[in-house]
Amino acid sequence: MTSRGVFSSRLGFILAASGSAVGLGNVWGFPSQVASNGGAAFVLMYLILAFVLAYPVLMAELLIGRATESNVVDALGKVSGGRSGRAVGMWGIATVSLILAFYGIVGGWMLSYTLEALASLAGLDQLAQWLIASSLSRNILFCGLFMLLTVGIVSGGVVNGIERWSVRLMPTLFALMLLLFGYVMTQDGAMDGLRVYLLPDFTEALNPDLLISAMGQAFFSMSLGVGTMLIYGSYVSHKENLPKLGASVALVDIGVAVLAGLLIIPAMYVALHNGVEIFGENGQLLAEDTLIFTVLPSLFTTMGSVGLVVACAFFLLMSIAALTSSISMLEVPVSYVVENRKVARNKAVWIIAAIIFSLSVLILLNFETLFGFVIALTTRYSQPLLGLMLCIFAGWVWHRDRILDELKKGDAAAEHSWFWRVWPWYVRFVCPVIILLMFYRSL
């Protein structure tokens, strides 16, 4: 197994896997969902559903990955004993590649906004304007730069690339978040935002639309269904207790999402206090790209020169969140090409990154038509269905004895644990029904 690479420490795995899970979905998606779904009621249901739905599917990926010690195509092929598993694996690779194609574009925007704050601090106003003006040349350049950063990390392999950088990037992300939160809470208006975020309206908690949104957010924020967690699971030592490791990853991921909300919702109310419009025509809080690229930059502008430093820290935080996810996404097709097609790792990384970058350029050239379409196709339709397939493989196709044997490697008493009493039937019956319901509602 040493030839594949193994995470050298438990902390390394937890930070890498939670880094994969912690992406822009947590830092801009989660606060946006909170804003448009009744504040704290959404936070409460998200916390419940993250463990009720996302954690069992996360465990399915980690268990299949570690038991097979393979890339996603070979792993699902071994579990299913046939072509159906391999076909689902290829579907996962196609989906994750498309996700990375649009993710690279957004990651590039985060980098350009980070540099814009630095350029403004340095008094380079013309450059600063170019960096935030949406032009094809800027978009292609920064998407390429973001992909190069991803390539640089993934080509180093599991220990010297992914683990080494995750251990540096994730603590930096937490530190930046806490510093920004501390600063925002000293501003007028922040307490109003904190109340919206922390005081639930329980009449909203069981609203079907809110539940569907919370479920989707829990699922997508842990980057489930596309093989990233399966791949990371395949690099975990057999001595580790997987249910505990999975719980640690889920907790870090949820923690970052909740912390992002604690930062962004009060920041929006500080912006409101400073005269920035934060509500749309429908009375809802502005969300997603409008929130990140219009509301918050307007807020930073009202803060004067301090605002440039805060803007730089905020967009650096967003860039790191994007990067910790993109490295896990690139690893999915890379591991397949290295193991199945016997291509040298460095060469495989460059070839696949070039193909995905070409897809990004294609999206940029047809932005109005393709950008929203690719996001909906992958995250709204493909990801839940892939998650459903993983539940079917783990719950119905894979032999229970083999799953138990895998669990016993890290915990001799696994047979008597709560996890073993609940998880096998839960992933077999409950998860598929919930995912199908969510998918049906989203249509």
UniProtKB/TrEMBL annotation:
Domain of life: Bacteria
TM region positions: 39-58, 88-111, 139-162, 169-190, 210-233, 245-271, 291-317, 349-375, 381-398, 418-440
Entry keyword Ion transport: no
Pfam family for this entry, one: SNF
Gene Ontology CC entries for this record: membrane
Record's signal peptide: none
Subcellular location field: Membrane
Topological category with respect to the lipid bilayer: Multi-pass membrane protein
Keyword entries, A-Z: Membrane, Transmembrane, Transmembrane helix, Transport
Protein name, entry field: Neurotransmitter:Na+ symporter, NSS family
Lineage, top ranks: Bacteria, Pseudomonadati, Pseudomonadota, Gammaproteobacteria, Chromatiales
